[in-house]
Amino acid sequence: xxxxxxxxxxxxxxxxxxxxxxxxxxxxxxxxxxxxxxxxxxxxxxxxxxxxxxxxxxxxxxxxxxxxxxxxxxxxxxxxxxxxxxxxxxxxxxxxxxxxxxxxxxxxxxxxxxxxxxxxxxxxxxxxxxxxxxxxxxxxxxxxxxxxxxxxxxxxxxxxxxxxxxxxxxxxxxxxxxxxxxxxxxxxxxxxxxxxxxxxxxxxxxxxxxxxxxxxxxxxxxxxxxxxxxxxxxxxxxxxxxxxx
Length: 245
Ligand code: C5P
Prior knowledge:
Blueprint: E1 6-9, E2 13-17, E3 23-28, E4 31-34, E5 39-42, H1 46-63, E6 70-73, E7 78-82, E8 85-86, E9 89-96, H2 99-105, E10 112-122, E11 131-132, H3 134-139, H4 145-167, E12 171-183, E13 192-196, E14 204-208, H5 218-221, H6 227-237
Antiparallel strand pairs: 1-2, 2-3, 3-7, 4-5, 6-7, 8-12, 9-10, 9-12, 10-11, 12-13, 12-14
Helix pairs in contact: 1-6
């Protein structure tokens, strides 16, 4: 593990000071948490898989013009990223009803939504990351009006691209969560919005097209077992690793 100064420690990741100004090192832990950290476990190898899967997604998204914080992977568990000011919103895109959408609105899990749905949650563990509206976001200044529009269009572009990428390997992208940050380049006062954090089976719902088998963190949330095996299967199908396990 890096001996650098810890800038932030989250549930599944640690951010260290980077080697150059404006950079950070993102370290992927094996810790898994769910239900706002009420449920915890250590899943051997999860961090290694998420580092690789997130690298893959960020690189592919970068290649189709989505600006991201990813610079390069450093080793099994660490990647170099651009330091951003995180926008305090979790941007969730849903294609199929599941999770809190099903629970909150009584929509049956698995129902295909008429169109992709974008939701915003205020990032606040103490409040349990509540669902918020555009009015809240504007009133409390969490994102400006232009930023709000950008977040929606970026999230939908990510959804289009990732839906295709997963469909090509027999996986349905049910829903996922993104985080974005403001990046101040050089002396510029106008920040650019970059896709930040991670994209991995911790932050997506992924179902096998044929069997409906869950290949994501719901295996942990629902005590289904085989969590890292499922993440490895995702990595294997995407061609990131050769063998499962
Ligand atoms: O729980 P919910 O149905 O709202 O989650 C929607 C999507 O966002 C899921 O893919 C879930 O894994 C992800 N999510 C996340 N981090 C959170 C909340 C949700 O990655 N704090």
